[in-house]
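Data availability (excerpt). The following record was deposited with the supplementary files.
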Amino acid sequence: MKDCVAALDYGTSGVKAAVFGLDGQTLGIASRELPIHLGPNGAALQPIDAVFTAGASALAEAVDRAAVQPEQVRALGITQQRSTFVPVGGDGQPLMDSYILWMDLRGVPYVEQALREGRVCEERFYTIGGLSMRKYVNPWCKILWLRAERPDVYAAASRFESMQTVLLRQLGAVDPPLDRSTASPFGLMDLDRAVWSEELCDCFDLSPRQFSPLASGGTVVGRLAPGPAQRMRLNPGTPLVLGGGDQSCAAIGAGAVHPREVFIGLGTGACVMVGLDRPLRDPRHTVSCIFHAIPGKWEIEGHTQASGVVFKWFRDQFGQAEIAAAGHCDPYDLLTSLATTIPPGADGLLFLPMLNGSTHPEIHPEARGAIVGLGLQHGRGHVVRALIEGVSLEIRWILERIAEIVGGVDRIRLAGGASRSTLWNQINANICNLPVHRAATADAAVLGAAIQAGIGVGLFRDVQTACDAMARVSETYEPEPAVAAHYDEVFGRFMAVYRALLSPGAA
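Predicted structure:
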């Protein structure tokens, strides 16, 4: 019987579970949706039991589909959304029924308060931890909210733990550590020393002891307990391995582990990331530098606030005909087909995709989307083409800043749901003017966690060896020089319109 590895990717909107052969072949994959509960003042919560149950159910289905015996599954890797956490008591049990999601905004006033009180200057905060204080997704400010608004919970908390740690304990690990790529977005780590920062914790009257001990991705941290094993169709005692934060694992799963290689994860939002051998900081203190899931590595990354979700918004609001035809064809494919006959630049139509603001490479949460240049000659295909181009133009903006910081990039590794579109992949190659290598597995994060699992139990020597075996490329898209040159002009207009709309008084 051939060995294989399993992995779970706990995302914001759903869980993916998969079983992979050691050649990277997907033997079985399944997913489950997850609920998100939104409340007053920007509250965003996810029930802890629902997350665990969805993962167990999805993995059981993936194992069934893979038609493998439990003893063939050598390890289980875990990856998850970053900056999602919950307070736990001294017994390791959560003190709330739900995780506080990364998208929860209740900590925003406490960022402003910390700045007013001069607890730490923004430059020093960024220099130590590699994150802007104004990245409101990071848990440190929500911990301050808990202390002020839920003092009973704060006082009872022994630690503030990531979703990763809670899940591993539910699966059978005893006091599991937290991997650095998941710890780093808490906003309280020291980039140079790879430890919780005493200085930053002191600024907010916190202590490193309130957070989990640290470890590297690819570390075995426990064994699967009998109860979860039965639910997941695996053997009790299966090794549990730290995968890492979802974006780090997605880069690994896409094979983006070489110097000067960009990973772009094109999903709900878009992540643009380059791996580093040492920490590099943005002189403007905006683009994030954090720890990678690969031991001894860092990453520099920027994010759009809305990418694939923009296409979903357009489908839901204006794609009723395509939705009605969904029984015969994917509505996204039908919409994309409208754009294939439209020339690059959409006959002058521009779309700004900042429907949810902008945080990289500049922080402008007030920014909003726009369709500019609409004329009687434009049809639905023009709008779809402009929408796809607009998302890619925003990615280029982030990529240019990152390339400036790291000293240049050579190629792109692309994954995510939107990477299934041939048209979109070619547009990315032309707009970024770089070769685009599409990962064979669009769900790269779950593959990255599986790769980490294989490394953890000695099936591979290191990440490079594992990626060479498992992270395959399905197609390569080369930039077309004349089209790329045209998109240089389009990008210039895109940025000019963005600036004008952001500061209308200066237009």
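Summary of structural features: The chain has a mean pLDDT of 93.
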